[in-house]
Amino acid sequence: MDGIIIINKEQGYTSNDVVQIIKKKYNEKVGHTGTLDPMATGVLPVLIGKGTLLSKYLINHDKIYVATLKLGIKTDTGDITGDVIQEENVDEKCLEEENIRKVLEEIKGEQEQVPPMYSAIKVNGKKLYEYARKGLSIEMSPRKINIYSTEVLNIDKENKEIRFRVSCSKGTYIRTLCESIAEKLETVGTMSSLNREKVGNFEISEAIKLGEIKDNFSEDKLISIEKFFQDKDEILLSPRSFVAFINGVKLMADNVDGVYRIYNSNKEFVGIGTVKNGILKRDIVI
After folding, report:
1. Which residues, in sequence order, are bridge partners of residue 18?
2. 91 among known catalytic residues
3. At the top level of CATH, which class does the domain 3-58+203-225 belong to?
4. Residues spanned by CATH 2.30.130.10 within the chain?
5. Domain 229-285 belongs to what topology?
6. SS3 of 72, please?
7. Whole-prediction pTM value?
């Protein structure tokens, strides 16, 4: 089985938990793109078999999240699972819809964001959260991100929570964004829930729960390598060129530079190739 399964991850599972469950079920090489914290839910693309070779095509995808920001407390992890390190009163104006919409408008656009210590970014072979759990702090350089759009979904004045949707670039930490929003509202805050609705073109409406994997997974939910590249043009190879292609021989091509679906003379899909400067090179062979 080669391709991508879109998992709707539930709370309590790590992204690696999901990988191990699927690996055990199908005895295939398995990976994932776009780590989700255990408390977070939503879209997690899982790559199976030769689908793991697609990872380089998935690293720059934009994302859409629905997050809940709880005002009045700040935690060491940036989310509700951490220890409270600061508390502040929440003024009524912090929860006024007009004020919230104004702040969400202000955070849009290109900007720099410093990754949180409780993240999976590696420094000297260790993940940042491993340092954080030992009480160590590593100075991180800010990274460029882009907030494309924001939308207020609900304001819970009793519980002092704001639920909002955000469309953003790869590398955006919503926990850090929540803290920034709270700061602009002149208080502190922490992320109390997070659901990822979309990664690139993968939407939550096409995602399946882990229970479906464990019980009776229907392979029509598998996004094949051919389907993943369905918007790319195709190249039909002669029998002789096909043998050369699968053996890694570079071929002359009249096609413009780009990624192509490759078919043999029987019009059977055989993999993915790339053309650059008139040369067709093998990329993925199934």
Report:
1. none
2. no
3. alpha beta
4. 229-285
5. 2.30.130
6. coil
7. 0.88
Mention every residue, 6+ apart, whose C-beta is less than 8 A from residue 229: 259, 261, 272
The confidence score (pLDDT) of residue 30 equals 93
Helices 97-106/174-184 angle, 10° precision = 120
Q: Look at domain 63-199 and name its CATH class.
A: alpha beta
Concatenate the DSSP letters of all residues of 110-141 into one string.
EEEEPPPSSS--EETTEEHHHHHHTT------
Question: Which residues, in sequence order, are CB contacts of 3 under 8 Å at separation 6+?
Answer: 47, 48, 49, 51, 222, 223, 224, 225, 227, 228
Neighbours of 87 (CB within 10 A): 11
pLDDT score recorded for residue 114: 83
CATH 3.30.2350.10 maps onto the chain at 3-58+203-225, 63-199
Average the pLDDT over 1-19 and give the result. Answer: 91
Q: Which of 2, 17, 37, 79 is catalytic?
A: 37
Instruction: Give the tokens for residue 74.
Output: 């700040």
